[in-house]
Description:
4 copies of one chain form a homotetramer. The first copy, chain A, is α/β, with parallel strands linked by helices. Chain A is built from 9 helices and 14 strands. Chain A folds into 2 domains: 3-145 and 309-321, 3-Layer(aba) Sandwich (Rossmann fold), CATH 3.40.50; 147-305, Dihydrodipicolinate Reductase, domain 2, CATH 3.30.360. Helix content of chain A is 27%, strand content 22%. In chain A, helix 1 (17-27) crosses helix 9. The two termini of chain A are 19 Å apart. Chains in contact: A-B, A-C, B-D, C-D.
Amino acid sequence: MNGTSKKRVAVVGARGLVGQELCSLLLRHPTLELSHCWSTQELTGDNSNPVPGAPAIQAWNGGAGVDAVLLATPHGASAQLAAEALDQGAVVIDLSGDLRIKDLALWEATYEQTHPCPGLVDMAVYGLTELARDEIKNAQLIANPGCYPTSVLLAVKPLVQADLLQPDATLISDSKSGVSGAGASPKASTQYANVHENFYAYGVGNHRHAPEIQAHLGGPKIMFVPHLLPCFRGILSTIYVQPREGLGMKEIHAALSEQYAQETFVRVLPAGEQPSLHAVQNTNNCLLGVAAVSSGVVITSAIDNLQKGAAGQALQNMNLALGLQESEGLL
Amino acid sequence: MNGTSKKRVAVVGARGLVGQELCSLLLRHPTLELSHCWSTQELTGDNSNPVPGAPAIQAWNGGAGVDAVLLATPHGASAQLAAEALDQGAVVIDLSGDLRIKDLALWEATYEQTHPCPGLVDMAVYGLTELARDEIKNAQLIANPGCYPTSVLLAVKPLVQADLLQPDATLISDSKSGVSGAGASPKASTQYANVHENFYAYGVGNHRHAPEIQAHLGGPKIMFVPHLLPCFRGILSTIYVQPREGLGMKEIHAALSEQYAQETFVRVLPAGEQPSLHAVQNTNNCLLGVAAVSSGVVITSAIDNLQKGAAGQALQNMNLALGLQESEGLL
Amino acid sequence: MNGTSKKRVAVVGARGLVGQELCSLLLRHPTLELSHCWSTQELTGDNSNPVPGAPAIQAWNGGAGVDAVLLATPHGASAQLAAEALDQGAVVIDLSGDLRIKDLALWEATYEQTHPCPGLVDMAVYGLTELARDEIKNAQLIANPGCYPTSVLLAVKPLVQADLLQPDATLISDSKSGVSGAGASPKASTQYANVHENFYAYGVGNHRHAPEIQAHLGGPKIMFVPHLLPCFRGILSTIYVQPREGLGMKEIHAALSEQYAQETFVRVLPAGEQPSLHAVQNTNNCLLGVAAVSSGVVITSAIDNLQKGAAGQALQNMNLALGLQESEGLL
Amino acid sequence: MNGTSKKRVAVVGARGLVGQELCSLLLRHPTLELSHCWSTQELTGDNSNPVPGAPAIQAWNGGAGVDAVLLATPHGASAQLAAEALDQGAVVIDLSGDLRIKDLALWEATYEQTHPCPGLVDMAVYGLTELARDEIKNAQLIANPGCYPTSVLLAVKPLVQADLLQPDATLISDSKSGVSGAGASPKASTQYANVHENFYAYGVGNHRHAPEIQAHLGGPKIMFVPHLLPCFRGILSTIYVQPREGLGMKEIHAALSEQYAQETFVRVLPAGEQPSLHAVQNTNNCLLGVAAVSSGVVITSAIDNLQKGAAGQALQNMNLALGLQESEGLL
């Protein structure tokens, strides 16, 4: 490996939790160089990077001089940055919600604003890696999936695509996330006082990830209720499905096992076993458990929200888009 | 108040978490005296009570000399103790699972043993206080509900009784409990190492509280999946229901609000608000939230598993059975 | 007890953690009425009290109409409020640092500002209850001690007063506090992300409680280093002392045991036993452990920082100043 | 790198927390192969390794067939295993306390047993890497230091060796450890119920690491008091030292900075800054902070107890003893 041949990658928004995770992963990547960290916010005297060893923060230059740009920037701001970086020829991976929903009206209702860059939406590939690998390999612009949607869609989208579920039965995803999903900036809800030894549902009926899940699931309706766990990292979604008549836990388990048999990062546990957050934290893995409960089937899906739910999957997608081995820097 | 007129109460199994909670509550009770703590295990040199101020542990004497006996003893052992204490004329509240299920065959399948005392089962009143108050007032023997069943049944049993739900739609209770639900004795699953920053589903498809919930819910089928939270106290059940055609969140919210309008310990939050564990820990309260999610209705039900889910409800029941004010010692 | 004869008490600063603790304690107080909660900040539309059942927040009226005022307000602002309430004839307990240090120059160096009300300083009694009970009974103005100073001074001031320590040996207090010591307003240091599974020393060499401890200890020098624990409530100070020649652990233990033999809230454990935070949380107790380590003696002192370290001790002092039983509302 | 040329390493005691950490580190090591995991306990049906990818547990074969053996076994049992493996020609690193103290009488008083293998004691090099590197390079048998001693000795031994401290002033190390220091087997003290939101001193005056620290510190007396933190990983020792007359914080900071200027794993922070557990968890680093507090100097020393305090330092030592780069597999 010749160091000078490494492809150059930039992170925008390196001060956030996802941005920091991207920097940490890229510093360990064998064939990519984290060459720049850009910010669109006014730079202060202290431009040091919170991740030791990562480049200092510099002003956004439009995305010039790198092979790929990772946007860990807020929705509403990301799409415009994507447009600029595409103009510079970079591969762009947007980790915000800007480009995840094709239906503009739905996007605008969900995010309660006019879309900042509608022209990009159709071009963006929804980067749920294991289910869109071929498109991702050829993509110039990738909309990285949300954390909750990743945990839910990996578990049930193959079942919908294979038509194994009752089409008129509503799926339910009861999802729980660690507090890192709420970002780095201090707020009351993420204070230790309010998180430790606590637990509650939030955003019931109006979370932005609900339309994203529904849009990419297709087919049956899904109810999604997120909760805040008293821990830092990880999402576990408990998903209730109704198989078609004549099918049961065995067939669901077999279908998912076959779907993911060759995957590095998605694994189906033996029937009846359940994944834990401990088993996925600080990894890019998604672990799936399948079990029968009275008349239905329950799938539990565990990921690290900052890795497979954000930075890890982004890197997985970038590897593919840049022609590298998918798992580089992620094992 | 004349101290000598206080009714005398005993706790059996005072070393467990529920037993300790009972002792703590009884020490603060204005009109009951915690006169004895009995154990059926061999007594060692140290018979001190883990709760400061509570009576030292003594050998079980068959239940003589007290007005009421609270059994915080394991299933399989409790029913026999109940029989002995009834013979002594005491009011008996059994906090184990021995007397919660009327169907003997179901009980034996659930607990994987022959029932130790089948003759008592019919006599026992299932002590879900707010929904069985009149029976409890006249009861000599009360089967105190399980922690998960309390959180679930308070939320949905009134809806079933009022026939507000689609009879052939399966209810789902995705329930989460703090680790105190697993008891005081050291085991791998309750080690700090395995609990902190972790979360997972367990007992999927085979938890003993599932048949108890189904038996007392009547009517529609219910799927129940418990999870272990990285915290000590509290249960939150997220329950998905399908109202009858023409009914929705408003009607469900109104029905529960009316049901519990006069209750001291069960409160329905304004529509769309969700309870947290913080709001119920160290109280005997059950807080209910009702919200609409796409086509369905979600009810979140929060209790303290050691209080309303065990010792608190037991004391509430004992107050009633002894002719006292229901809330004495619980506010 | 005739309700109309209850003395009336007000809390200023009820939105903070200490203010909330005061409100909670006062709501349970048998012979005091929490009649008002005042704020000096601009009132917004929502003037509800974060503690259910406590009075809504009203604008500060100068302290009229109550028997006592508890100031849970910031240093720099409290002293002026104290002056106004004294003018109205109220007993005033200031929980801020404004009146804890008699030496004005030291106060101004410590708090880096001009003292807002120097005329009050001499009048204020330093309310370390067990060591200043007689003065407190007759006080109109009480400076409630800081949380760390309470934990340290209760452990060692009696030893200094009895001249049991080597006068030229420096005492060391290695103190650790839960995060509630840092207040309720969101900041980076109190985010769950930065507290959980973390621990560090802070304010080394420049914490405001160091001069307060030294001023009230008298005699020997003391080094004080505070640390932030990954928990919510409680302070544990580990204090290293050098007894005079010929004295050792036994004599230190005996002296403290005798000092506190009749106290309700301060207890000395059997020699060699150590207190834990669990043993004092949500109580007004201070537990002291004494042990020998090689050539020295170690005293560990545990309190709940929001109770004995703030609101509890304030109430204890107010009980005394109003002529009530010291422990009312605190057991 | 030719895989067949990798040196072969075995871990004994792979089921413990330290053993698991060793396995995890060795699986990522570029030039060593974790070829065997041995146990001296009776093997049951399930001989799988708790670390995915690590070799299954096999019966102890006396240490044949490997280049080095890492003993993560209990004191009292380790020394005999070391003797057997030495006979087979392996380099041996013992992570137990068996070989850390040269004075046999002191060892036997500390561990309350007859030494199992006194003939090995003199041969063992005490593996505090940065302070004994040359001996370690040539060692066949290394006694890996305890976790607390590592944190304390790295901070103060260079100061004693350079004669910068008052020889008759007692040093104090107030040390705090996460619960992983107490091992993996379930016990009451490591239950979530007893750890979360708790904190206390333990082993005051009789912890086994006190004689180890004193023996290797030489010179001045040191008082050591350990505490249990409500977290999983990490040790922070707050150490109080008295510099010789005319010396102060600056000179102490300069001496430590110079001592460790070229080190990969030990770093001295800028004067006045304090390390946190977050900064060292899951690394082999020791971070040192130096600050002035009134008349004295405080050094805070932070390590990960399972890495620099156990498995990481063992690997660092093994690298040296096998002629590899010291930091291999540890960055």
